[in-house]
Amino acid sequence: MNAGSLYKKLLLSFFLVLFLSSIYAVIAIYGDSQGNNDIHKQIVEAIVKYQPDITFHLGDLTVQGKKQEEYDEFFSCCKPLTDLCPLYPVKGNHDASSELFLKNFPFLSQTYYTVEYDSLLFIILDSTLELSTHSEQFNWLIETFNSNPLKPKIILMHHPIFSSGYHSGNEDWALYLPALFASNKVIAVFSGHDHNYEHLQWKNLNFFISGGAGGSLRPSLSQHPYSKIFCSSYNYLILNRQKNYLICTAYSLDGNIIDKVVIFLDF
């Protein structure tokens, strides 16, 4: 091999290493499949094309969550996804039996938990349980915040705090949770429950609703003052991690972009 060929090979290797070192995590988020296997399969098929490294389901995996057959159908639908990457669930109100929920996700010891991935701390809350300031789950949340003061955090919870959708938000939570999140390096909050896509913003904190993986679509009843965009369509989210920010893209079932939001890791 002459010097010129060796130089080109080394240069190519350098740029390949540089390119690979610039690739960060791809994160998929979707919710409310609710036993609609046809739409759920289409959502999974669409998500798989983005080759996610990790996936979160925002709850209401099932119709009622009382029979094993419901979970068997769920896992059958998302097998192409779970063959590709780990899937972490949020418990929804339709996933009624906590015992059956935990049985089907044996790596979980309880229905609220954390996942650390690519220097991000994902905090999964169980909004079907008590979240008042004197509750066990709230105390756990405070301990989690105190134990991880510097990590950028993402909250995932089934019921939204703010929403323009059919169910609306939770006025009690709105009094204290957004401020608590913002003061503890939470960079985004993701929810389902309302069967639509919505992006809302409280001060600099982004709130997303992605409940469009199978549950019956519903229109907006009234626009929330924090709402940036609302779309009544089946949808899923793909987050592309960059060094100092995330790009959150909401896609409709046919692959069209509904919304694209930059989430800074430190604001």
The spatial strand order of the largest sheet comes to 4-5-6-7-9-8-10
Beta-strand percentage range = 25-35%
Q: Which structural class best describes the helix and strand composition? A: alpha/beta
Q: Low-confidence parts, pLDDT < 50 over ≥5 residues?
A: 13-21
Average of per-residue pLDDT values: 93
Count of discrete domains? 1
Q: Return the CATH class.
A: Alpha Beta
CATH topology: Purple Acid Phosphatase, chain A, domain 2
> How large is the radius of gyration?
20 Å
| Quantity of strands, as a count | 13
CATH homologous superfamily caption = Metallo-dependent phosphatases
Distance between the termini: 52 Å
Query: Which term fits the overall shape?
Result: globular
Describe what this molecule looks like in 3D.
This protein has 267 residues and is of the alpha/beta class. The protein has one domain (23-264): Metallo-dependent phosphatases (Purple Acid Phosphatase, chain A, domain 2, 4-Layer Sandwich). Helices cover 28% and strands 27% of the residues. The chain has eight helices and 13 strands. The chain has a seven-stranded mixed sheet. The protein has a six-stranded mixed sheet with strand order 3-2-1-11-12-13, with no helix packed on it. Strand 1, helix 2 and strand 2 (54-57) form a beta-alpha-beta unit.
Descriptive terms for the model:
alpha/beta, Purple Acid Phosphatase, chain A, domain 2, seven-stranded mixed sheet, 13 strands, globular
